[in-house]
Amino acid sequence: MSPTIFNEDGYRFFFFSREESRRDIHVTSGDGEAKFWLEPKVELSKNSHYSQKQLKKIKLFIEDH
Question: Would you list the domain boundaries of the chain?
């Protein structure tokens, strides 16, 4: 089970425990999925089907939370 951290505007933000030593967050919606590193700064790690506009919006949600 991957715990949900928060939901925003149709996106689900969650994490996998024990996945990697570097902190990260995953996001999914009907449009796609992505993974962002949280350290040392919020940075895109993987993207599947999100546009650049969506990624920018998702990154802002992560930074706000």
Answer: 4-64
